[in-house]
Specification:
alpha+beta; Beta-Lactamase; six-stranded antiparallel beta sheet; about 15% strand; transcription
Length: about 290
């Protein structure tokens, strides 16, 4: 097993009651699990890297489109139909794809890989019960996210009684500057890492409210650092507000973040600016202490 990352590895999930995100399905896991395709390549032959890349392309396509025929996939890959057929048959033989009436879709084997990968985060183990409690208490949507390669990744989500569904899902990658949890993480990274992240990924907009100017983002980062939490005013989804707070280590560097989101009509005024931030700060501080003292 590789050495633990800063999120902590090799921890298992606690048992107990949980509010499972309904969008947690096999297709949501692929973006974090593409390297498991190596298991689908017969080991007897020294395959070129291109073979693995093509297999990853197949799975990424199916993640976005749900199903595809060999002909559709051939057009996407721009290669011989016989080659595409061989790739897809090999993946299906290893339960990574399922064939039904000449259409292929992702196999449930990804669920096993996803559960193992997700449970390796100690942060997930610590945050999950608190995320569930927050969802029940606020009745809104709660997310726990981490940073990976300059992007945010949702590792767990829980739905409150009145939560609304958006594009977000477990395993979803997002630009850090576009949402509350991501901005909370970004503001609690070293300045040189923030600069590298912006240089690498840019500041693409998702809605008209998304911050896309570098100077404006730095002003926002300073404000987040001063108050300790971040807001999202319809910057990721039109009509959605959110507040996010970072989970930090002993050096005040973010190892993750938790956010609460809901309709702008409901999350406004004192609820958004006072009540939820106070609640969130208590939760992330508790998780941070538990992470520092296992």
């Amino acid at each position: 097993m590789r050495a633990p990352c800063r999120h902590g590895l090799a921890f298992t999930c606690r048992s107990g009651r949980a509010t499972t995100d309904s969008s947690y399905s096999n297709k949501t896991l692929v973006s974090r699990l593409v390297m498991c395709v190596r298991m689908a390549i017969p080991p007897a032959v020294n395959r070129p890297v291109g073979t693995i890349e093509r297999a990853i392309e197949i799975m990424e396509y199916l993640k976005e489109h749900d199903t595809a025929t060999v002909s559709e996939m051939t057009a996407h890959l721009d290669c011989a139909k016989s080659t595409t057929h061989r790739y897809m048959k090999t993946l299906a033989a290893n339960s990574l794809l399922v064939e039904d009436d000449n259409e292929y879709q992702l196999g449930i084997r990804f669920l096993d890989y996803g559960e193992v990968a997700r449970n390796k985060y100690r942060l997930y183990d610590e945050a999950k019960p608190r995320v569930d409690e927050l969802a029940e208490e606020t009745e809104e949507k709660i997310w726990c996210a981490v940073e990976e390669h300059g992007r945010s990744v949702h590792i767990y989500g829980a739905q409150g009684k009145h939560s609304v569904q958006t594009y977000a899902r477990v395993g979803h990658r997002n630009y850090l500057h576009q949402h509350a949890a991501g901005k909370a993480i970004l503001a609690h990274l070293p300045d040189n890492q923030i600069t590298k992240t912006i240089d690498r990924h840019g500041l693409p907009g998702r809605t008209p409210q998304t911050i896309t100017d570098r100077d404006e983002l730095w002003e926002e980062i300073e404000a987040i650092r001063d108050r300790g939490y971040a807001f999202n005013f319809q910057e990721s989804v039109e009509g959605l507000h959110a507040v996010g707070a970072p989970i930090t280590d002993e050096n005040d560097i973010a190892i993750g973040a938790i956010s609460v989101s809901g309709p702008a009509s409901r999350l406004e005024g004192p609820i958004l600016r006072d009540e939820l931030p106070t609640l969130l700060l208590g939760v992330v501080n508790e998780i941070g202490i538990n992470m520092a003292h296992p």
